[in-house]
Design goal:
By secondary structure, this protein is α/β, with parallel strands linked by helices. It has helices at residues 11-19, 43-53, 74-95, 127-142, 162-172, 189-205, 223-236, 271-277, 284-297, and strands at residues 2-6, 25-29, 57-60, 98-104, 145-151, 154-155, 176-179, 183-184, 187-188, 211-214, 221-222, 248-251. Helix content is 41%, strand content 16%. The strands form 4 sheets. The chain has a 6-stranded parallel β-sheet, with helices on both faces. A two-stranded parallel sheet has the order 6-9. It has a domain at 2-160 and 187-219 and 267-282: NAD(P)-binding Rossmann-like Domain (Rossmann fold). Helix 5 (162-172) packs across helix 7 (223-236). The model has no long low-confidence stretch (mean pLDDT 96). The protein contains 9 helices and 12 strands. The protein is globular. The chain binds NADPH dihydro-nicotinamide-adenine-dinucleotide phosphate.
């Protein structure tokens, strides 16, 4: 199997470089790759890359992920999250390749308190969520064989994420305020990459599994609960942090002014993924503990 990976140095892309290796030949690109164009802003360039590499599977781990900045950079977010996946999907269709793509819980408006299923109606609250949803639609309408995985709250030892921000702030400050009314499941890039490799292999043998899936760790927590978990873990592992447990203060989203509005309910129902691919999704805590161990040892 020949696999073409875009976004090799993002959180998920980095882990995919590892997890895809047993599947065959992997051509992994980022935006500054030289031999082939890996810059999703260059639509002609990525189309030429697909034609030159002629892969069996294209995996797009690249995205415009700066949620607040997207409000001011709508055009660029649209180019990377909508037009580029559309081009990849059209090229995949021409050569009968699979396209694997990632999307987000931010396609939903966050109403209610039940986990969202794939058949629920999306209604994004911000530009990032809108462009990610349009990206999904572009892939579907191109008619290529595809897998789209909507996930949430991604973390990894490598890259920028909430967990690492909390560790940094807790070393610098005496007190932290953290949002307590947005609920979701922190999901490891390693879990996503391993699950992707498994799903690609299954899709190769059973093309009827093509479609949209929710894929996230099990369980739920607020950002506040997640921050408590991170900082309790760090304290127990002798990390020098200034913030005491009782100095992490829960606040409502409305107390935090951000450019982009975020959904309160980011819970994703993963039953379809688990049933189709015969995989378990673990509770969120063990993966976060593993990542923290790695980060704190550095
Ligand atoms: P990251 O932000 O860690 O990685 C995104 C990657 O995309 C970066 O390596 C970035 O490169 C690359 N990229 C951005 N613009 C371009 C471009 N023009 N050309 C090529 N590459 C580009 O994201 P994650 O790994 O966390 O996200 C993977 C997927 O999961 C994305 O589709 C995202 O929307 C989705 N997702 C992520 C969530 C999260 O919490 N992070 C939550 C839900 C879904 P560079 O570093 O050079 O900018």
């Amino acid at each position: 199997m020949k696999i073409l990976l875009f976004g090799k140095n993002g959180q998920v892309g980095w882990e995919l470089q590892r997890s895809l290796m047993p599947l065959g030949e992997v051509v992994a690109l980022d935006r500054s790759s030289q031999e082939y164009c890996g810059d999703l802003a260059n639509l002609t360039g990525i189309a030429q890359t697909v034609r030159a590499v002629a892969p069996d599977v294209i995996i797009n781990a690249a995205a415009y992920t700066a949620v607040d900045q997207a409000e001011a950079e709508r055009g660029l977010a649209y180019r990377i999250n909508v037009e580029a996946p559309a081009v990849l999907a059209q090229e995949a269709r021409h050569i009968n390749a699979w396209l694997v793509h990632y999307s987000t819980d931010y396609v939903f408006d966050g109403s209610g308190d039940q986990p969202w299923s794939e058949s629920d109606l999306p209604s994004p609250l911000n530009v990032y969520g809108q462009t990610k949803l349009q990206g999904e639609e572009a892939i579907r309408s191109a008619g290529c064989r595809h897998l789209i995985f909507r996930t949430s709250w991604v973390y990894a030892a490598r890259g920028n994420n909430f967990a690492k921000t909390m560790l940094r702030l807790a070393r610098e400050r005496d007190q932290l305020t953290v949002i307590d009314d947005q609920m979701g499941a922190p999901t490891g890039a390693d879990l996503l990459a391993d699950a992707t490799a498994h799903a690609v292999l299954m899709a190769w043998k059973r093309p009827e599994v093509a479609g949209l899936y929710h894929l996230a760790a099990d369980g739920e927590v607020s950002w506040y609960g997640y921050a408590r978990f991170i900082l309790d873990f760090a304290r127990e592992h002798a990390c020098a942090i200034k913030v005491q447990s009782d100095a992490i203060l829960p606040v409502a989203s409305r107390a935090f002014a951000t450019a982009a509005k975020r959904p309160l309910n980011s819970r994703l129902k993963t039953e379809k993924f688990r049933r189709t691919f015969g995989l378990n999704v673990p509770q969120w805590q063990p993966g976060v503990a593993r990542m923290l161990t790695e980060v704190l040892e550095k």
